[in-house]
Write a structure and sequence with these properties.
209 residues; mainly alpha
């Protein structure tokens, strides 16, 4: 876990890349959904924009760590940006009928439920994305990238579809497992944080009067 450096401004290049990743979400959605997703050129542009947005996740994280620009804003905003771009891909593919809603809905509930939970427990401490979450995001990104491509134009499209489904199945499984793990960590943080200890101490002092 990288600790935020005291006095570092949130206005820095890594955070700017994170915000930029959020801003491209509607443009990515438009490219994906235009002409019912059947325009080959637009599907390639949508795929390219998705891959580029996902790539900035690694870039901004490396920059923040190497240059000592880690901030609480970045640690909270970075996973939100990831969820925004991948969430748009899940929803868009389901709207096009290329990905079942029974996959998209549980994934979105997990992703945004965890995000809301991070804000609920932020008074006790910031919960950055862990290795499991990063692996989950990587698997989701690979699977979604393949689904986003105009696979019907590929030689042996069924083989590519099968590959995409194998990676997606692994991503969904890891998504649910890491969601449970993060929820347990949040509960533990609420019990063991300095804020919780102070509340217990005040309560004990009040009971001892």
């Amino acid at each position: 876990m990288t600790t935020p450096v005291a006095g570092v401004s949130a206005w820095n290049l890594p955070n700017a890349l994170t915000v930029l990743r959020m801003l491209v979400v509607p443009f990515f959605g438009w490219l994906l959904l235009a002409e019912d997703g059947q325009n080959v050129a637009l599907r390639w542009w949508a795929t390219a924009l998705f891959v580029l947005a996902i790539a900035t996740d690694r870039i901004d994280g490396d920059l923040a760590r190497k240059r000592g620009l880690v901030t609480d804003f970045g640690k909270v905003a970075d996973p939100i940006a990831d969820k925004a771009i991948t969430g748009m891909a899940f929803v868009g593919l389901s709207l096009l009928g290329e990905l079942p809603w029974w996959i998209t809905v549980p994934v979105l509930i997990r992703e945004w439920g965890i995000t809301i939970m991070r804000f609920v427990v932020i008074r006790h401490g910031v919960m950055p994305a862990g290795r499991g979450g990063k692996t989950k995001t990587a698997l989701q990104s690979i699977a979604l990238s393949v689904f986003l491509m105009p696979l019907w134009t590929f030689p042996q499209p069924d083989l590519w579809q099968a590959l995409a489904w194998v990676v997606m199945a692994a991503a969904v499984l890891l998504t649910l497992v890491t969601g449970i793990d993060i929820a347990l960590k949040a509960l533990r943080l609420r019990r063991t944080s300095d804020r919780a200890a102070m509340k217990r101490a005040r309560r004990a002092a009040a009971d001892g009067r």
